[in-house]
């Protein structure tokens, strides 16, 4: 008879819930970064041509999906500088819409 130790069990969902990218598509990440920083400032932080020359979500997604190093830069930037800002913005928006006037 084997017994399992519940303290040593780890499920993928437990680990994934701590990942700020869990459940987010590249499109969502890019849209959030553009809404927070805009194309010009985003290009200042992440020097990728698709952000500096005639930027669009569609063309940037095409490039990022084909270019792993660029995608990693965008994802890392989002984790470091976008996710917390987005969560705070959402919290403030939710608080302002739920407060009675």
From TrEMBL:
> Which stretches does the entry tag as region Disordered?
1-20
Biased composition of type Low complexity is found at 1-14
Q: What molecular function terms (GO) are annotated for this protein?
A: DNA binding
Q: What is this protein's name?
A: DUF2132 domain-containing protein
List membrane-spanning regions: none
Q: Which Gene3D superfamilies match?
A: SAP domain (1.10.720.30)
Q: Which InterPro entries does this UniProt record tie to the protein?
A: DNA-binding_VF530-like (IPR018668), SAP_dom_sf (IPR036361)
Pfam short name (any one): VF530
């Amino acid at each position: 008879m084997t017994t399992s130790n519940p303290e040593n069990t780890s499920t993928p969902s437990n680990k994934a819930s701590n990942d700020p990218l869990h459940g987010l598509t590249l499109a969502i990440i890019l849209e959030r970064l553009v809404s927070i920083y805009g194309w010009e400032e985003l290009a200042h932080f992440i020097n990728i041509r698709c952000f500096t020359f005639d930027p669009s979500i569609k063309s940037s997604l095409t490039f990022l999906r084909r270019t792993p190093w660029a995608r990693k830069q965008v994802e890392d930037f989002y984790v470091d500088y976008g996710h917390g800002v987005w969560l705070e913005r959402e919290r403030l928006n939710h608080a302002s819409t739920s407060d009675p006037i």
